[in-house]
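To fix ideas, we now present one chain and its tokenised fold:
***
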Amino acid sequence: MDFDWSVIWQSLPELLKGARLTVLIALAGLAGGLVIGAAAGLARAYGNVVLNAIAFIYVELIRGTPIIVQVMFIYFALPILANVRINPLAAAIMAIIINAGAYIAEIVRGSFLSVHRGLREAGLALGLPFWKVLLYIVGPLAFRRMIPALGNQFIVSLKDTSLFIVIGVGELTRQGQEIMAANFRAVEIWSAVAMFYLIMTGALTLILRLTEKRMRIL
């Protein structure tokens, strides 16, 4: 079978549309996941018994179930429980937020606890409020240490968007499936889809490498 490049060129508009939606879902989901993950991670590291328990249950519940089950629950079960209709795009973004947040929480917890406690005690001894100690003393060091792990999670979450094909979200994988169903050129279409993912993850990896190099701890 000959590889027909014209099939890819003809499919580029639809594939680009799917890639844009993939990036949108990933960016929106990771932004929310960072907020939830930071809150849950700090609760796990420094919270009281109640906050620690709530964060622990959240992290273990999400990490113990596949993201495809989570998005199916959000899209199909949550509307029944809450009597609210959720569109596929909103369900996809919510799934990334909830899923990434749990993993980011453990990254944040581990990074903050890896900073020597003497720095925190020194800040408190100077009379700084605890939140300022975390923000200005512990936080910058912890952030530098969590960059590699965060980068890995960002890439995983970007690729996880392909699973949202099960609820009909028109992201990159869904677009590839629809094009392939119309022209039956599986080799060309899935090669193009794979290349799009490689470009997106490669660009993200480059950005993270440059950030890591710029903020490296000597």
